[in-house]
């Protein structure tokens, strides 16, 4: 093995610009570019996220002039074998802080060490990596606002000046490893964003030019294109948050302030998951273990109605159908649909979270599980458990003319204005083909509050 050859193992950093692993390998180094399709990660990803990932891999491969080696298997076996064959002692990655990613990397590291190699972690998918932002006495933050302040004080590195020509890419055809063709674009029913680094850059530029200034107000309106829709690109690292933060440096407007805040939430949830890996699947606040949730055939029927967007509550149904149609849902509507599942249907948050993770093109364990727990009341900074979203009022407030609902629920397309939020009040009842509400919100709200009593007592 020679020190001169590096293996760049791409994971959630599918780009060539602002790529700290390239800096770590050293300008001009001979390098092999690798991506491993790991069945453990591909399993829970639905077809939308897989389609997007394959598109990002194809775009990366094009940037590297066809020199991306894609293989399938358990990284703990595959990566050391390929490193051996390529004559690479150093395997460079951006650090992964998720529970699975961390354990996987430790296994890869052990195997590399045994053959005299090493795993070198440089950078992470975050502006500030989990564990770096600390309280004055070295502790970790459990509340967002002070975290955000300390996060901004900590600051982040400027983007790394890298591009595809930074390293001397080895042709993987020279190796005997069995390369996989990048899986072809399996047809998906969802209308998904264009994958890849160049598309991410374009989207960022459009957002910055047209929507950033009004983002503080615009971000809460699902009927308007007021958010960046960069989440899937951030998930796969087609663009790094550092690049976005650098692009806003010097912007003191409320839009930039608010957008920086959302990137801070992303880092905060990754930090919290790093502190408490168990919170991916259990209540962060364990007093919520005392909450009784429903199961059985009736619960399953209600869950199916929620998944399909057939609850009879228009803004909930529009959100769930947007998820099916685009592999994405507006943040405000994620909160409304999640609240409905937990507080109106009395189902456990993790059941909804699993459906989101499978369906979202931006599905991310930290943001998703903690977004859900925020709504359920069991997370950090959680919305108070006694705040129960009223789906009609939420619809009327954030989709005041009903345009969002009409876009995704064609059965309601003929109802003008905000009357679309209460179709059961129309003289003839809801239009043909659209269901009556599956529950009585006032009643379920009272049930939810009653069920929280043992949680309160357990605190
Ligand atoms: P913008 O408003 O343009 O925000 C810019 C970026 O900031 C986003 O791309 C995202 O990376 C980050 N961000 C924004 N809001 C949040 C937030 N509340 N928490 C963490 N990061 C945030 N986001 C995911 O990326 N993946 C998920 O799986 C996910 N699941 C969620 C589930 C629920 C129940 C809730 C309430 C929120 C969830 N979010 C998740 C957060 C948020 O809804 C999305 O990040 C956002 O809607 C993505 O759209 P955007 O890129 O246009 O966001």
From TrEMBL:
InterPro entries: Crypto/Photolyase_FAD-like_sf, Crypto/Photolyase_N_sf, Cryptochr/Photolyase_FAD-bd, Cryptochrome/DNA_photolyase_1, DNA_photolyase_1_CS_C, DNA_photolyase_N, Rossmann-like_a/b/a_fold. Residues 4-127 form the Photolyase/cryptochrome alpha/beta domain. GO terms for molecular function: deoxyribodipyrimidine photo-lyase activity; DNA binding; FAD binding. SUPFAM superfamilies: Cryptochrome/photolyase FAD-binding domain, Cryptochrome/photolyase, N-terminal domain. GO terms for biological process: nucleobase-containing compound metabolic process; response to light stimulus; response to stress. FAD binds at residues 215, 227-231, 259, 262-269, 362-364. Transmembrane segments: none annotated. Its cofactor is FAD. Pfam families: DNA_photolyase (PF00875), FAD_binding_7 (PF03441). It comes from the Bacteria. Keywords: Chromophore, FAD, Flavoprotein, Lyase. Belongs to the DNA photolyase family. This is Deoxyribodipyrimidine photo-lyase. It comes from Myceligenerans xiligouense.
């Amino acid at each position: 093995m020679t020190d001169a050859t590096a293996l760049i193992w791409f994971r959630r950093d599918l780009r060539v610009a602002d790529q700290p692993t390239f800096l770590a390998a050293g300008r001009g180094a001979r390098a092999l570019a690798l991506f491993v399709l790991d069945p453990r990660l591909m399993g829970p990803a639905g077809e939308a996220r897989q389609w997007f990932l394959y598109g990002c891999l194809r775009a990366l491969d094009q940037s590297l002039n066809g020199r991306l080696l894609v293989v399938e298997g358990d990284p703990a076996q595959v990566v050391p074998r390929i490193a051996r064959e390529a004559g690479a002692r150093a395997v460079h990655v951006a650090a992964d802080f998720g529970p699975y990613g961390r354990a996987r990397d430790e296994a890869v590291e052990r195997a590399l060490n045994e053959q005299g190699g090493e795993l070198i972690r440089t950078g992470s998918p975050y502006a500030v990596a989990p564990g770096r932002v600390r309280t004055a006495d070295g502790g970790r933050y459990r509340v967002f606002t002070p975290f955000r302040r300390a996060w901004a004080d900590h600051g982040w590195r400027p983007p790394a000046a890298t591009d595809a020509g930074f390293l001397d890419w080895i042709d993987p055809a020279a190796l005997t490893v069995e390369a996989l063709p990048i899986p072809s674009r399996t047809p998906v029913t969802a209308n998904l964003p264009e994958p890849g680094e160049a598309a991410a850059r374009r989207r960022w530029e459009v957002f910055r030019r047209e929507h950033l200034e009004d983002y503080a107000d615009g971000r809460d309106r699902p009927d308007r294109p007021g958010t960046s829709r960069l989440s899937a690109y951030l998930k796969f690292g087609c663009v790094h948050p550092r690049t976005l933060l650098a692009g806003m440096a010097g912007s003191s407007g409320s839009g930039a302030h608010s957008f920086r805040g959302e990137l801070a939430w992303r880092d905060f949830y990754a930090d919290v998951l790093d502190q408490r890996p168990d919170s991916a699947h259990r209540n962060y606040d364990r007093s919520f273990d005392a909450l009784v949730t429903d199961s059985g055939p009736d619960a399953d029927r209600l869950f199916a109605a929620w998944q399909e967007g057939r609850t009879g509550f228009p803004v909930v149904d529009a959100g769930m159908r947007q998820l099916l149609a685009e592999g994405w849902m507006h943040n405000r509507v994620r909160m409304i649909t999640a609240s409905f599942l937990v507080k109106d249907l009395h189902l456990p948050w993790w059941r909804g979270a699993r459906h989101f993770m499978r369906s979202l093109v931006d599905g991310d364990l930290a943001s998703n599980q903690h977004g859900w727990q925020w709504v359920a009341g069991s997370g950090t900074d959680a919305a108070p458990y006694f705040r129960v979203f009223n789906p009609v009022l939420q619809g009327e407030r954030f989709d005041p003319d009903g345009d969002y609902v009409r876009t995704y629920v064609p059965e309601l397309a003929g109802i003008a204005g905000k009357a679309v939020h209460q179709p059961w009040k129309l003289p003839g009842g809801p239009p043909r083909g659209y269901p009556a509400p599956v529950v009585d919100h006032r009643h379920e709200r009272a049930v939810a509050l009653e069920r929280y009593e043992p949680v309160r007592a357990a605190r």
